[in-house]
Structure formats: structure tokens, C-alpha cells
Amino acid sequence: MCQLLGMNANTPTDVMFSFTGLATRADEHKDGFGIAFFEGRGLRHFVDHHSARVSPLAELVKRYPIKSDNVIAHIRKATQGRVALENTHPFQRELWGRYWVFAHNGNLVDFHPQLHAAFKPVGDTDSERAFCWLMQELAKAHCAVPTIEELSRTLAELTPRLNRHGTFNMLLSNGEALWAHGSTKLHYLLRRHPFGQAQLADEDLSIDFAQHTTHQDRVAVIATEPLTSNEDWVAFQPGELKVFVGGALFAA
Amino acid sequence: MCQLLGMNANTPTDVMFSFTGLATRADEHKDGFGIAFFEGRGLRHFVDHHSARVSPLAELVKRYPIKSDNVIAHIRKATQGRVALENTHPFQRELWGRYWVFAHNGNLVDFHPQLHAAFKPVGDTDSERAFCWLMQELAKAHCAVPTIEELSRTLAELTPRLNRHGTFNMLLSNGEALWAHGSTKLHYLLRRHPFGQAQLADEDLSIDFAQHTTHQDRVAVIATEPLTSNEDWVAFQPGELKVFVGGALFAA
Questions:
Q1: Could you give the number of structural domains in chain A?
Q2: Which of A122, A128, A131, A140 would you mutate first to test chain B, the one with the most B CBs within 10 A?
Q3: Closest approach of chain B CAs to the CA of A117, in angstroms?
Q4: Which one is predicted more confidently, B185 or B55?
Q5: What ipTM does this complex have?
Q6: Known active-site residue B132
Q7: Source organism's superkingdom (chains A, B) (predicted)?
Q8: Residue B243 clears pLDDT 90, i.e. is over it
Q9: Which of A132-136, A235-239, B81-85 has the lowest average pLDDT?
Q10: Which residues from A are below 8 Å from B47, CB to CB?
């Protein structure tokens, strides 16, 4: 199973701690990794078809404190599509003058939608097909740039149509909000004042967030499995879509 | 003036030597840098709004031998648009199931085309507007995926319309071919057997390509100014569009 990691914050935050936790799980997920960081409207997008365990790129991400308000990372274990750079999540497209980033964990069976519009897959995964279809349907549903609320309503209609084809745990962001859909396995955590000590579940590493944060900071972390052993992770219900804005849950 | 660097080869080749040459010129071009590497249909895309002189990303590119058949790099000195990640070249879009990458050196005055189709700028540079317009016009001109020859013919019609608005030195690639348009300053070099010693123009560094190549290898390098002091660089004529495929000039 692939591993997903998402981060949404109200102040630019680095994900070195969480990404280190994710990368330790890369032993059995050696078919590539990717991570995308929004900085305002701008985007940094790193992909490598080497394991996050050995990739020099992953090493850079663990050491270079890139501060971002929306991050999506993915560690791949190939189910559909060859091990190749063009099949490595997260995927990226532009819509309405904003970059959109998407990562998927799961397997969609018999999913071959009509892609008649401006979004075509470059690789050959079910995941990129699902992303292109989502972008196409969002573009069809709204003629101008919609609000986060409107986008969330449309996505709540679209995600069950994907879920019907199989497992569809996914993360999607346009740099303003982060949408997360749980199908079989996805968890989230809201960090806010008072911040405490967090202990990585898989590695003998902990961090005291109180030393790195202010009272106003809010950070949401979304991951396939809880990354820390001493914090209150919440499991997504099957078919649940959640929207994160400014490090908190957005009530759509 | 920004600095452009392009590479097109018939066998995956690293650009560590040329990029080191380019990065030395980053002193007066401190408004960001970017580099995109095609690996087949896949793409690695690095951007940083820090100077290539100090960026940890640039350091990685100089040391990690990423082998690619088409590379576009850009070192920015801002003319239009703020210093921000979303204004950092090269820009990337998807068209016909292929990634397209674009970098521009120059300044387009009063260029505000109708962007009515699927390509909208995320940042606020004249360069990204020009790229979106090119993608839109390519998409309008061809209903299915055109050949390199057909694409070249369409681009030869479109580039003069951009050049009319000011300086338009540019590099464009879809991973199959690299198109280069010279307006005021652009040079290219064809390396092939017998390979020899190359000496960087700005730094006390040389490389013996004979030790790193086979008889069949062909590499085209395109740069704003010649990067080496002892090779036969050819200057683009004003308004000249050249197409590079497999490390050689493509006769369109």
C-alpha cells in the first residue's frame, strides 16, 4: 500500500519531521516518491523513481527546511503503471490560473472515463486518470473560479463516483485548501496551542513543537497511518471527504 | 538579462558541467533559478526563488547526475513580475498527454492576449502569458497530436507574433524535441564524435567529453552566451527558430 502525507497550515511550516517519519516506511515502498510544496500560488514539485530511503532528493527534503502552507507527499508501491517518473505521484495540473496537486493511494478497477477536455494523462496509472477526470469535471461544473465551499460541494459529488471503482484514499490541493478523501485508510491530526512533544512512531525521534511555534499556529497533518505515537489521530470514515483550510477543519 | 540553458541529446546525458557554468553567472541574476529535466515522458522540475549561487537545490543539481534527453534551465533577473516562486522559469503545462516546458529571456511590451482556453497564467510575468498563449494556439492549430515537423511549422508562424512585442529568446520542449527562438542573444553548439576537451568560459574548470561518451552520442547545447571558450558556438540570427532532435539540428 502506498503512503500518503498531507499538511495544511495557517503559517508556512516545514514538514521535515513528518517526512522523516514517512520515509522510514519506504522500505517496502521502493517504487518512487514525490512531494509538492505550495508557497502562496507557487509550487515546488519533487519526484524521484528511486525509493525515499536512498534518493538524494529525499535527503534534501529532510534537511532543507522548505516552509509551505500546503504539502502533499506520496511514497509509491506500484499497483497499476510501470515504475517510471511519469507515474510518480503527486501529479500536477493548472486550472483557473492555479496549480492543483493530487496524490492517490488505492486501486481503481475498470476506470476508463471519457477524457474529452483539456486534461490528459501523461503516464499510465489509474491515479492520474482519476486526477484528470476530477479536473475535467471541476472545470465543467464551474465557469469561473469557485469558492472553497462550492469546490467542496462539487468534490463531494465526484469522489463517490471514483470510490465505486475501488480504493480511493486521496489528497488534493490548490494551495488554498487541502481536500482529503478516505476510503479504507487515512488519518488526520490537528496541532494547535498548547503544542507539545511529538514522538515518531517508527523511529527514535521526537520534536518539541512548543519551541518552534507561536500561540496562533495551526497545523493539520493527514497521513495513511498515524505518524506519531503520542498524539490524537482521527481515522477517516469510509467515503468521508474532509476539507482543511488554515490548519483547521473547514465546515463546508 | 536572464540566462537560458537548453540541452537536447540522443542519449540521456547530465548537464552538471554546463549548469555549473551557468550558475557562475548567477551573481547578477539573483531573482531565482529553475531547471526541468525530461526523462522519457516524465519530468523533474526544480524551481527556487533564491540565487543559483546559494540555493541548496542548485547545489543538488550540480552534484546529482540526473540523466536526461531534454533539459531547460533559466536564471532569472526580474523585469516584469515580482520575485516569487510562481514567477520562476521554466514554466510547465500539459498538452495532448505530454508535459511542455518553457523558459524565456527578454521583455514583451503590451502583450495581453486573449487567453480564452485551458491555459491561464498562475504568476504575473509576460513570459508565462506568452507560454499560455503558445499552448493555446498550438492546441487550436492541431486537433490531434502533430508531428515534430507540423509543430515546428506552427511555431514558426507563432513566434514572430511574440517577437513583435519585444525581446523573445526562448526555449520550449515536450521531451521529444527542443525548440529555440533567438531574438537578440542565443547561441548553440553541437557536440559529437570526436569529442574533446571543453573549458568553461567563466570558471577554471574543464572536462574531457571523450572519456564520458561513445561514438554514437550527440548533444546540442543552447545558451544565452557561449559557456565554453574553446568550442564552436553558433549565434542565432534575429528571429531564427531552430529545432533540435536527438542532439542534432532537425530540418523542418
A1: 1
A2: A122
A3: 9
A4: B185
A5: 0.92
A6: no
A7: Bacteria
A8: yes
A9: B81-85
A10: 42, 44
